[in-house]
Structures are given as C-alpha cells and as structure tokens.
Amino acid sequence: MFLGCHVSNKTPDYLYGSINEALSYGANACMIYTGAPNNTKRKDLSALQIEKAHKAMQANHFDLERMIVHAPYIINLANTKKPELAQFGQDFLASELKRVAAIGAKVLVLHPGSHVQMGLDVGIQSIVTHLNVVLDADTSKVCIALETMAGKGSEIGSSLEELKQIYDGVRHKDRVGVCLDTCHLNDAGYDVSDIDGFLSKFDDLFGLDKIYCIHINDSKNPCASHSDRHANIGKGTIGYDTLHQWVWHPLLKDVTKILETPYIDGQPPYKEEIKLLKERI
Q1: Which of 39, 51, 188, 278 has its CA at 20 to 30 Å from residue 197's CA atom?
Q2: Which residues contact 114 (CB under 8 A, 6 or more apart)?
C-alpha cells in the first residue's frame, strides 16, 4: 500500500522537511505544492534541499514516484473569457513541469479549469489547446493527472466523460491521466461505494493504468451536492468502510493514495488516519 498525505514545503527545510513530515505520520507517500498554491512566487531550486530529501527517502524506502506534486489553483487553461489568463496558466504550467522534474517527482496533479460561463465545449477545447502547446515543448517525463472535480459553478471535470474529451484531444496521451478524488466524485454524483462499478466504467473509458493517484477524502455533503467540502476519514457521508475499501482494493494496490482531510483543532490528523486506514478489517 502506498498511502500518504499533503505535507508542507516551506522554510527552513523545504523538500527535506516535507519528507520528514510525511515519515512522522507513518506515510510512504506524500503530496506537495512547489510553492504557495495561490501565487507564482517560487524559491530557487538550490534552496529546496532536494539532494538531502532524496537521501532521506532512500534511507526510508520511500520511492520518488510516490511524491506527488499539485499544481497551483491559479492555473485555468479553460478561461476563454480572459485569454490572457489562460496564456498565463499555460506559461506557468510549463515552468511547473520543469520544476517538478528538477525535484524528481513524476506526477503533477492539475485541476482542469473553469469555463467561466463561456460554455463547456469551448472550455474543454481551450484546455486541450494549451495542454498540447505545453506538452509539445516540454522535454521532461513528468505526467499530468487531471483531477476529478465536484462540479461547482462552471468547473470542468466533474464527469469522467468530460475528462475523456480532454484526454482524446491531447497528442501526448502517454503523459496525461487522471487523479481521482473520493470527495469530489461523491459530490459530483458518483456512488463511490460501488467501487467495482466505477472502476469498470473508468476502465472502459481510459484503462485502469490511467489512474495516476487517488485523493482519499470523506465528504461533508451528500452525493451530487456539487459542493467540494472534505471531511475527516469516517466523519462524513462516504464513511470509513467505503474509504477503507478504496485504499485496499486489489485493482488499486499500486496506485499512490493521498489524504487531504481537514486539520482538527489546528492539528494534522494524518498519523491517526493513516493508521486507521492501514488496519485490515
């Protein structure tokens, strides 16, 4: 099982601190941002203690492929209302791919974007266009995992079919896959308790090898609420049993799974939640 959580990437230890934080929770996987998720300010790579982090990972049998990076929320390749913002997102995504490659990670999770009331098909075509420009020019081996979304407002990606439209349009299909999020799937209207049914549908559309990682989150909302409010494991409408099945499902055993659950009284719950999910029933 490859199970971890979101960890910080900040001064003074940066990536080395990220790995130590994950290890302190009993994790053998983690997810980071390369900088603040809501701006483009980034520290020079020389400050990130990359080599030190890699040595800590090797010493603890923590594979580099289990370090997932999440792209900042400010990237919106679907914005045709303000094309300059989509162009900004394209440029920053290109630089993020280089940064992810430099720290040694293999997967960058990306929110597909919002069509900002300009139309779903228009937004999807914009995403495809910008992804193709970025991937045509990029020489790294980093893969992009398009995240399943809850369907708030004009979000794109709340259905597998929408993600498939994007996937069908990109030229470098070997570098594009999906990041499933259990809370988002629930809030988008999927019955996440029917794991076998969902995986069969996904397999028909993409192939199971296109699940690059999974965010394991409970939800504060009922199915099809389109709200996207994460809850702690076993404290929401999805429930512990279903999330435990996602973590242990034999078809998903090699997929990296990441917790993004809320802090409790200002403290991270990850050590307890990882232990809880690792228990066999």
Answers
A1: 278
A2: 76, 78, 79, 123, 153, 154, 155, 156
Residues in the chain: 281
Beta pairing class for 218-219 and 230-231:
antiparallel
Tell me the pLDDT tens digit for each residue of 56-78: 999 999 999 999 999 999 999 99
Six token digits for residue 275: 């232990």
**What is the pLDDT averaged over residues 70-90?**
97
Alpha-carbon distances, residue 163 vs 38, 101, 115, 125, 166 (angstroms): 24, 24, 14, 12, 5
